[in-house]
Amino acid sequence: MPERKVDPRFYTFRDSVHNNPKAAEEMLARNPDLIRLCNGIGETALHYLAVEDHVDEVTWLIEHGAEVDPLNQFKQTPLMEVAGAGRLEMCKLLVSHGANIRYISPWGESVLSAAASHEQAEVVEYLLGLLPPEETVNQFFENVDAEMTLKHSPKCTALLMPRGLTKRWP
Fold first, then answer.
1. How far apart are CA 47 and CA 85, in angstroms?
2. d(CA 105, CA 86)
3. What values do phi and psi take at 110, rounded to 5?
């Protein structure tokens, strides 16, 4: 995918949020649209800083009106990416502010499958705890992630099999 043209204010704002929140607040007061600007792969400042595990900065952005579930050009939410990276505290922060644990990308990737396919058992356990106990998990594994999890992640498999994860292909 070709990268988007990036408004240079994106980087100035993102870096200010990280290094100088007072300056970021002044910038945002003058230009409220800064909170929605994206980098070359469609990540907002919140998306980028969540993936980098900057809890205070993400909290600041949310408190200043940032969307919790923006999609990057790969149709991934910040929660999907931090779940796959095993960033449990960031997952909890995003979920506590309304991040959608049930989102499934057009390619069949979900928050749960992202965590499981990257062997993030602690995150998988947390996400399962957010779902009703009787709910099966197959709808969150619409692509090859189910097979990869079953084959390569014994800890996640042990958590997911009792919740109905089944092998799709022989």
1. 13
2. 19
3. -125, 170
Instruction: Please tell me the distance from the alpha carbon of residue 142 to that of residue 11, in angstroms, as a whole number.
Output: 35
DSSP letter assigned to residue 104: B
Q: ∠ CA(72), CA(137), CA(117), 5° rounding?
A: 55
Q: Which two tokens stand for residue 142?
A: 């619409």
Percent of the chain with pLDDT over 70: 95
pLDDT value of position 2: 61
List, by residue range, all CATH 1.25.40.20 domains of the chain. 1-70, 75-170
With helix as H, strand as E and coil as C, how does 36-89 read?
HCCCCCCCCHHHHHHHCCCHHHHHHHHHCCCCCCCCCCCCCCHHHHHHHCCCHH
Q: Give the C-alpha separation, 89 to 82, whole Å.
A: 9
When pLDDT is averaged across residues 135-151 and rounded to a whole number, the result is: 81
Where does 75-170 sit in CATH, by number?
1.25.40.20
For residues 141 and 148, what is the distance between their CA atoms, to the nearest angstrom? 10
pTM here is 0.93
**CATH 1.25.40.20 describes domain 1-70:** yes
